[in-house]
Design brief:
Bound molecules: N-(aminocarbonyl)-beta-alanine, zinc ion
Strand content: 15-25%
Helix content: 25-40%
Distance between the termini: 48 Å
Oligomer: single chain
Length: 470
C-alpha cells in the first residue's frame, strides 16, 4: 500500500513546515514539496497538523489490582488509544513474587497477542530480585526488547521492594543498558497514615489523598535519585504529581544526574477538590499518587516547559465506578487505584498546553511522542516524522473542538475523569505503520494488526544536556 499525505503542516519536536509525505508500506520513504508520486491513496492534510503518532509510555491494560482487573484489555484499550491519536503504548508486565520475569513476559504476551490495533511494548515490574532475576533482566534487555523495569517504593506486602533490591536492580540496569522506572512514594509511612485514618473512622475517598502527602513522594524521589547516583544508573520517575517531588528532580538534573520524569494529564488538569464531591464520587479520582492541590499545576507546567519533566504519559488504569471502585465503598484503602486517560491525552495536552499558551507545538510533540521514544529505545523508528521511520502519523485538526464524555469515549469504563470538558485539537486520521487505523472517528484497524515492538538498550546519559554531563 502506497499513501501520499499532501499539504500538511508537519510538526516534529524540532521542525514546523508544510510538505508532502510519501509512505511505502509501513515506513515513510519521501518527504518533499509537491510530491508527484503514484499512490494507492491520497490524504489531503491542508490546514491540519501532521504529527508523529502519540507514544503513551505508561498504561496498564488488563492489570490485576486490589482483587479486580483494570477494565480495558489490549483490544479495548488500544482502540481507545488509537481514537485519541496514540499509536504505541508501553504497558507493564508484572513479575509475581517468587516467579521469573520471563514467565511474566510470556503471560503478558498472551494477554496482548492478537488483540492490539496499535503497536505496543512492555516494561517489566520487578517484585523480587534473586540472582536468577539478574539473568532474567539481562535476557529481557538483550533478547526480548524489554529494556525498562518498574520498581515500587509503595504498596508494602504487594509490590514494594526494599532499598537493597532497588540498588541491585539499578546497578545492573546501569551497567547493561536498562532503565529503572520508580514509583516513588514512601509506602511504609503511608501505610501507617492509612491505618491511623481507618482507626479514626475516616473511610471516605478523600482520605486516600490525605494519607499520601506530597512530602512522602518527595522522599521517594530523593531516595531513588541518591541510590541511582551510588549505583551509577539513570533513573526515571513515573507519574510525578507534586511540586515537592519536581524540586528534587530539578536539583538533581542541575547537578548533571541522569534523572528523568514523567507527569500525567490528571496532575495537570485535575486537583484535590475532586475528592470533596458529594457521596462516593471522589472514588473516581482515587489513583496513586493522588490528585494534589491546584497550586502544584503551575509548577508542573513550568517543569515541562524547562525540560525538568520530559514526558507526559497517562498511567491509564481504569476501573468502573460501578462494582470496581465500589469495592471501597466503606474503606478508601480498598478502592482500586487508577483512572482512565489513554484516549484523551493528546487533545488534553494540546488544548491545555498549546491552545492555552503554556508550550509550543514542537514541545507538545516532544512530550507526547519524541521524548518517550528516545528515553525508552524506540527512536528513530518511532517518535518522529522522518525518512525511514515507521509511518505512525496523526492528522491532527488544531481548530476542531470536542467535548470529552463517557457517552462518546471508547475506553471500557463507565465514567470519564474529564466529563464535559471542551478541548480544541482533535486527532482525525491515525496511521500506524502506514495503515489507517482511525478515520474521522471510525475504527478501520483490526485487533492483531498492532505489533509487539522490541526496544533497544538505552544510553540515557546521551540525553542529558551536554553541558551538564559529568
Ligand atoms: O493508581 C495508579 N497509579 N494505579 C496504577 C498502578 C501504578 O502505581 O502505576
Ligand atoms: Zn505506579
Ligand atoms: Zn502506573
Amino acid at each position: 500500500m502506497k499513501t501520499l499525505i499532501k499539504n500538511g503542516r508537519i510538526v516534529t519536536a524540532v521542525d514546523d513546515y508544510v510538505a508532502d509525505i510519501f509512505i511505502d508500506g509501513e515506513v515513510i520513504t519521501t518527504i518533499g514539496l509537491d510530491l508527484d508520486i503514484k499512490a494507492d491513496r491520497i490524504i489531503d492534510a491542508k490546514d491540519r497538523m501532521v504529527i508523529p503518532g502519540g507514544i503513551d509510555a505508561h498504561t496498564h491494560m488488563a492489570m490485576p489490582f486490589g482483587g479486580t482487573t483494570s477494565a480495558d484489555d489490549f483490544e479495548t484499550g488500544t482502540i481507545a488509544a488509537a481514537h485519541g491519536g496514540t499509536t504505541t503504548i508501553i504497558d507493564f508486565a508484572i513479575q509475581a513474587k517468587g516467579t521469573s520475569m520471563i514467565d511474566a513476559l510470556d503471560q503478558w504476551h498472551r494477554k496482548a497477542d492478537g488483540k492490539a490495533v496499535i503497536d505496543y511494548a512492555f516494561h517489566m515490574i520487578v517484585t523480587d530480585l534473586p540472582k536468577t532475576g539478574l539473568k532474567d533482566m539481562k535476557r529481557l534487555i538483550d533478547d526480548e526488547g524489554v529494556t525498562s523495569f518498574k520498581l515500587f517504593m509503595a504498596y508494602p506486602g504487594v509490590l514494594l521492594v526494599d532499598d537493597g533490591t532497588i540498588f541491585r536492580a539499578m546497578s545492573f540496569a546501569g551497567e547493561h543498558g536498562g532503565l529503572i522506572c520508580m514509583h516513588a512514594e514512601n509506602g511504609v509511612v503511608i501505610n501507617e497514615l492509612v491505618e491511623r485514618a481507618l482507626q479514626e473512622g475516616k473511610t471516605a475517598p478523600k482520605y486516600h489523598a490525605l494519607t499520601r502527602p506530597a512530602e512522602m513522594e518527595a522522599e521517594g524521589v530523593n531516595r531513588a535519585i541518591e541510590i541511582s547516583k551510588v549505583a551509577n544508573s539513570p533513573v526515571y520517575i513515573v507519574h510525578l504529581s507534586s511540586f515537592h517531588a519536581l524540586k528534587r528532580i530539578k536539583e538533581a538534573r542541575d547537578e548533571g544526574v541522569a534523572a528523568f520524569a514523567e507527569t500525567c494529564p490528571q496532575y495537570l488538569f485535575l486537583d484535590y477538590s475532586h475528592y470533596e464531591q458529594e457521596g462516593f464520587e471522589g472514588a473516581k479520582y482515587v489513583m496513586t499518587p493522588p490528585l494534589r492541590d491546584k497550586s502544584h499545576q503551575k509548577e508542573l507546567w513550568t517543569g515541562l516547559k524547562m525540560n525538568d519533566l520530559q514526558v507526559i504519559s497517562t498511567d491509564h488504569c481504569p476501573f468502573c465506578f460501578k462494582e470496581q471502585k465500589e469495592l471501597g465503598k466503606n474503606d478508601f484503602s480498598k478502592i482500586p487505584n487508577g483512572g482512565p486517560g489513554v484516549e484523551n491525552r493528546m487533545s488534553l495536552v494540546y488544548n491545555g498546553g498549546v491552545v492555552q499558551g503554556r508550550i509550543n507545538a514542537n514541545r507538545f510533540v516532544e512530550l507526547t511522542s519524541t521524548a518517550p521514544a528516545k528515553i525508552f529505545g524506540l527512536f528513530p523508528r518511532k517518535g518522529t516524522i522522518a525518512v525511514g521511520s515507521d509511518a505512525d502519523i496523526v492528522i491532527f485538526n488544531p481548530n476542531k473542538k470536542m467535548t470529552i464524555s463517557a457517552s462518546t469515549h471508547h475506553m471500557n469504563v463507565d465514567y470519564n475523569a474529564y466529563e464535559g470538558l471542551e478541548v480544541k485539537g482533535v486527532s482525525e486520521t491515525v496511521l500506524c505503520r502506514g495503515k489507517v487505523v482511525v478515520e474521522n472517528g471510525k475504527l478501520l484497524g483490526k485487533p492483531g494488526e498492532g505489533k509487539f515492538i522490541k526496544r533497544s538498550g538505552l544510553n540515557l546519559r546521551q540525553q542529558m544536556p551536554q553541558a551538564l554531563v559529568q
